[in-house]
Amino acid sequence: MTCASSIEPPDDLNDLHRFETPDEAFQYVRLAGLQDDATVDLGETALALGLLFLPGVKPERFRHHLKKLADTAQEDFDARLRQSAEDTLALRVAVLKKAIHESHGYAGDTEKYDDIQNANLIRVIERRKGLPIAIGIIYIDVARRLGWPIEGLNFPGHFLVRMEKDGERVILDPFRQGQEMNAAELRQLLKSIAGDKAELSHNFYDAVSNRDMLLRLENNLKKRLIESEEYAQAVIVVEAMEALAPEEHRTLFDKGILYAKLGQNGQARTALERYIEKAPNPADKQQARMLLLQIMSTPV
Q: Rounded to 5 degrees, what are φ and ψ at 61?
């Protein structure tokens, strides 16, 4: 796959081509990286990221599946309204949860949480299980297709979503069948992730951007690839992250380390020098300089 190939952006960035191959998927990610965040198609871009490692897979059936999820929810919602149900937040939540979990069998993968497939949306759709961020992206994609306000939250270590209607809000855990989370449950979840001394912070309730959600998905994939010492594939993930968020300088540091792991010291040097130029923190710059010296003094 030629991820590093340069391409010219189209005149209309809202008219992104449909991708069918890993190379086309990477181009789609690069073009999405040039868009305003609000116009990034979360579900389609997540499918593109998943296709990078799956040559021969036809993405159309996965696009169709996401549409089918929304169609299932819309049909159920319309049927309940015809039966005189009121359009409330509780109804929307119930419809969304039923379509995703009951009708199509999605669940968090509690048995093999660290399985690399759990961070690839295409594999998640195939297996009907995945990480909190992957199932959360499905929640958001389906709700947005129905025109329902929904957002991902900046909660650490476990992705959550928030739905809203007429001033009423509810936080849901897509990984746990859409469980509604109150303050006590959120505090308990945080402590299970960050330790008994951790306390809730107001910024944990901040909405995150489309790019941040996609980067969070890819960070999970990168982490698993590095742990299994699949450094060449991890480079592809980091390059995709860089394409998706061109102003995010931290991906350059990751690229430098990964290229060094692969013995490609020239590429490592280029990435780290670019990182040093872009990093705003002097301590981060110094850390990169020390790493660069270490890399360049290591015989190949």
A: -70, -25
